[in-house]
Design brief:
Strand content: 5-15%
Distance between the termini: 45 Å
Order of helices and strands: HEEHEHHHHHEEEH
Shape: globular
Number of helices: 8
Structural class: alpha+beta
Strand order of the largest sheet: 2-1-3-4-5-6
Radius of gyration: 20 Å
């Protein structure tokens, strides 16, 4: 039992689960396979009456995709950036998004504005592609120096020598690269919401499941589709030709 708990703690951050509301297209992120009600509700902003539910209904929230990282630090960094991008979508959207077409440019009704801002499915997928592109570039030299300074301050506060500290904390700041990152989609056509994916990212299919994300039991060698500009090679749950003809191909929505 203790070994299983220790393994779960060590793997915390290697997987990010995306869940989507089938009615409103709201999206929440989770570091666990099952949604935590309190943590998920904190990700849903108040945009008007009845935009934040009292609790999550399992019949309305369906798995969207599963992102797997080779190291927990990379997954936790991506999770933090996804939450930051989500906050920008909620507070820094263009005014044209909630205005009516026409010469007067009046604002939409409160109910209509709430529905528009709740629809974050396309933004979440485009954000994921942008986050992976940022992690491919790696941290700047200024970020690395700041991380080292913070580590030194913590070491001094705990009164440990530099050798003892490095021996117990060998992992430094997150380095660049997205090698080994896999995205498993319930519907592979959803990947077309992003204009471009890093070539190193591999896309797979994910078995449909009713309430929670299915465990990734698919053989990678048979179900791999390489990343790129909305295209891929190899076998998959949906043929590549259908991916290229997707109705939402290359939208890259980033409100």
């Amino acid at each position: 039992m203790a070994q299983s708990a220790g393994k779960q703690l060590a793997e915390h951050g290697t997987q990010i689960f995306f869940y989507n509301n089938i009615r409103t297209n709201q999206t929440v992120y989770s570091l666990t396979r099952t949604l935590n009600n309190n943590d998920s509700l904190k990700q849903i902003p108040f945009l008007g009456k009845k935009t934040v539910p009292a609790r999550l209904r399992k019949d309305l929230w369906a798995p969207l995709c599963l992102v797997e990282f080779p190291r927990p630090s990379e997954g936790l960094l991506a999770y933090r950036r996804l939450r930051e991008f989500r906050r920008l979508h909620e507070t820094s959207y263009p005014l044209s998004l909630i205005t009516r077409p026409g010469p007067r440019r009046n604002l939409e009704s409160k109910k209509k504005r709430g529905k528009i801002l709740m629809d974050q499915k396309a933004n979440s997928i485009a954000d994921l592609a942008a986050v992976l592109a940022l992690q491919k570039q790696g941290p700047s030299q200024e970020h690395i120096e700041e991380a080292n300074r913070r580590a030194d301050r913590v070491r001094l506060q705990k009164g440990r020598g530099k050798k003892a500290w490095r021996k117990k904390n060998p992992q430094g700041p997150v380095q660049g690269g997205v090698d080994g990152v896999k995205v498993r989609w319930v519907n592979l056509l959803d990947a077309e919401f992003a204009a471009e994916w890093p070539p190193e990212v591999v896309h797979h299919g994910l078995e449909r499941h009713r309430y929670t994300a299915a465990l990734p039991l698919i053989d990678d060698s048979d179900e791999a589709i390489e990343g790129g500009e909305g295209k891929g090679e190899g076998k998959g749950e949906v043929p590549v030709a259908l991916l290229e003809q997707g109705s939402n191909s290359g939208t890259g929505v980033r409100a």
